[in-house]
Amino acid sequence: MWPLRELYSAGLGAFALGIAGGIAAHFGLRSAQRISSLFSVFALIGSLLEGAAAVGGLRSGGAILWAVPSGVPYLTYVVRLDALSSFFVLTLALVGAGVAVYSAGYGKHGAAAKNPALFGALLNLLLAAITLVFTAGDVMFFLIAWEAMVAAAYFLVVTDHEQAESRNGGMLYILMSRAGTGMLFVGFLLLAAPAGSTDFRALHFTGQHLPGGFGSLAFLLLFLGFGVKAGIIPLHIWLPAAHPVAPSNISALMSGIMIKAGIYGMARVFFDFYGALPVWAGMIVLLVGVISALLGVLYALMEHDLKRLLAYHSIENIGIILMGFGAAMLFRSYGHPDLAALALIAGLFHTLNHAIFKSLLFLGAGSVLHATHTRNMEEMGGLIRRMPATALYFLIGAVAISGLPPLNGFVSEWLTYQALLGGFGATTEIARVAFPIAGALLALTAALAAACFVKAFGIAFLALPRSASAAQARETAPAMRAGMAMLALCCVLLGLGATWFLPVFDPITNQAFGIAAGHRLVSGNGAILSAGSAASGTVSTLMLAVTLVALSALPLIIWLIWGRRGRSVTGPTWDCGLPGLTSENEYTATAFSKPLRMIFSVLFRPRREIQAEYEISPYYPKAIHFESEIEPTFEKNVYEPLKDGILRVARRVRWIQAGSLHAYLAYIFVTLILLLLFAVRG
Amino acid sequence: MYFWQDPQFGDRMITLMAAFVLVLQITMVAQRWLITNIRAFAVQSLLLAGIANTVAYFNHAPHIYAAAALTLVLKAILLPVFLRRLVARIEIRQEIEPLVNVPLSVIISGLLTMLAYVVAEPLRAASGPGDSAALGHNTLPVAIALFLIGFFMMVSRRKALTQVLALLSLENGLFLAAISLTYGMPLIIELGIFFDVLVAVMILAILVYRIRETFDSMDVSRLSRLKG
């Protein structure tokens, strides 16, 4: 038995020290800069301790740590580490540790350097708040932790508050979060009222017993409320606005773990609070997942801002996770707990994997941003020679997110496919059709993601530098490289060692469906991954890796046998007869994504403008201006009308606010008299 | 039985004083001079203290004496003196310029009094005329009328100082309602309310002063300029 309580509280204590120390240093010391890396150390220690507690929680299958009455009605500080909580805390610990190490080197640069101590305090606060979100065992306590997380993240997003872009991104983020929290509040109250308790244990499997339409209403409210945080389409617009403007280590935390708080909430609600849900609920989640995945990756393809591109990929991956969740809900509705467990494992495993490779990619983007001072990919290029370590880690992250074997992204996406394909045989009616379509669209999504990262890696790291700042780029600090290396190692280990990791999910599926499905997916003495039944597919990442190594040896052998006798000639790249190829002749990101922009022009509605300046004849232009942009569909068609509507109503109501004391008094007076008359008549 | 032991007599006394209180309230509506308004308020508070005393005497509720004494000291003496000094200090024009003219104001006050009686009717019927607990039951409609008319004065008067006066008479209505319905609230609550009123008047006095300093007038309509 692990000392769960001690590890958990020691972890929170480390975060608390980081918070207190950061604030004290900010207000007390003039040279807070010098000790700024200390606060990252607190974050690292805290993450590691929480990770140990999470491992203990997964081994013991759940434990109540505390239930402290607060003295305030309806609020009890219940902290518990059950299997689901432990899994998410483990995710937090892995991401947090990597980001903390990276931050030790990053804190001295960029906007964070202005108030390094305060920045460290907020970083610790964010980690502590997310830990509490994952471990809170009471509705009110959960919401308090949730709001603390939102607030900490907001302040971190606006670290660079002198830029209008940061302020706007932060404002959009906090507005959306407020709306989400409002929905969560109502949804939780609807659930908790009939249960008569706000304790999560009391809410277990109570959702489906709610009277009338309240069960469905609570489900929808909670789904949307958590969906805002997770970034499902169409509630995603804050992600591409807030993620790029935050410091990169914060982007990594937000995209890696904070949006997973939304996923955690959904898992908690769908598979803990609801024992069964109607088919339409699962269909909605699956549909939202498919739409988010596909549109997310399509918008990512059109981005030339490296961090915005990654933010859109977060939306895509949230979609893939939700496809797993939706499939699990549908299988539960149709009475296939084994398939439901498979789909849930796929979703949760992808949550962990995405947390790791997305924070890795954001950290890599942060290093690139730090070295080149731009987020625009068109001004990068040639970085692989200047920052080889960063390029390697970014490449590992890119391979993982593209779902290529043998890394971790492949395993969880493969499991998701298997679950979706299994749905064809196991369900009836509309779901029977929906599953193969979802599977096909998932395949399309993965292919597009691969294309997108070919673009991102190729344009940013390969070829010649496209700008002076890219040419002068230098490799980043050792601490930053170490942080990325940790996460890259996790990507490789979770890919190759997936079969050893999967039994971790046993207690979770046991809690949700009553079967321990994780170890059933493993066969062949832990070398082979199978999708549960004999009919479905099997795969082995380890064997794939060995094969890849073996295959790469093949050309070497061929060269050794015949190559040495051959003749090699080195010459310049063919330049179409025009002398002097420069970086301006390189393939650009815009050009790369052009075919897809045309194929999906219905969706993108691209606008293109070409203006040529000439003196003598249009055949001899002096300069050509080229402008291309795609229509921000959701902003324009959903949020703009919404905003206009609210403003219109507000303008109409504004005359009430006359600014006259007499008018206000008269309002109260007239209301009073009307109420009196009403009381007399009634 | 002497007449001062007869609850019937007490009831009549209270009704008589309540009637004077109401008349004074309408006088305040009809009066155009600020000083007279303050005097009317002082007399009204004095009568209120009388009512409280009578209720305390006939119901053998000694804690109401304390409330009566507080009313006497605070509202009948201290606040009027304080307000008169304020008027003298800020040297404003003595005439009140209501937003609604005087005859119409009086008519509205009459209508509000009627409304008060209509509203209080169910409560009067519930207790019944011969009931000993009905001591002062006639005062409830008066209290409501005081409240409504006080509120109406707040709405209809321009100057901040006259609104303070209106608020005070409105509070008198609340006090009267408390006395007539429950024979006085617990003393601690009464003390709280008195303290509240005192602080409110202090703050309002400061506010009045500041408004005059800033706008060179006490007309609160000018505050609408502060709107963004």
Fold and architecture overview:
The complex is a heterodimer of chains A (682) and B (228). Chain A is mainly alpha-helical. Chain A is built from 25 helices and 7 strands. In chain A, α15 (408-426) packs antiparallel against α16. Chain A is globular and about 105 Å long. Chain B has helices at 7-30, 34-59, 62-90, 102-127, 139-156, 160-182, 187-215. The termini of chain B are far apart. The model of chain B has no long low-confidence stretch (mean pLDDT 79). The interface between A and B is medium-sized, with 16 and 20 residues.
How are the elements arranged and paired?
The complex is a heterodimer of chains A (682) and B (228).
Chain A: H1 4-28, H2 36-60, E1 63-69, E2 76-81, H3 83-106, H4 116-135, H5 139-157, H6 164-195, H7 214-230, H8 238-242, H9 248-273, H10 279-301, H11 306-333, H12 337-372, H13 383-386, H14 388-401, H15 408-426, H16 429-461, H17 468-471, H18 478-496, H19 498-501, H20 506-513, E3 522-523, E4 528-530, E5 538-539, H21 541-561, H22 589-599, H23 601-604, E6 607-614, E7 621-629, H24 633-653, H25 661-681
Chain B: H1 7-30, H2 34-59, H3 62-90, H4 102-127, H5 139-156, H6 160-182, H7 187-215
Helix pairs in contact in B: 1-2, 1-5, 2-3, 2-6, 3-7, 4-5, 5-6, 6-7
Which short descriptors sum up this protein?
heterodimer, A: 682 residues, mainly alpha, three-stranded antiparallel β-sheet, two-stranded antiparallel sheet, 68% helix, B: 228 residues, 7 helices
What's the short story on this structure?
The complex is a heterodimer of chains A (682) and B (228). Chain A is mostly helical and 682 residues long. Chain A contains 25 helices and 7 strands.
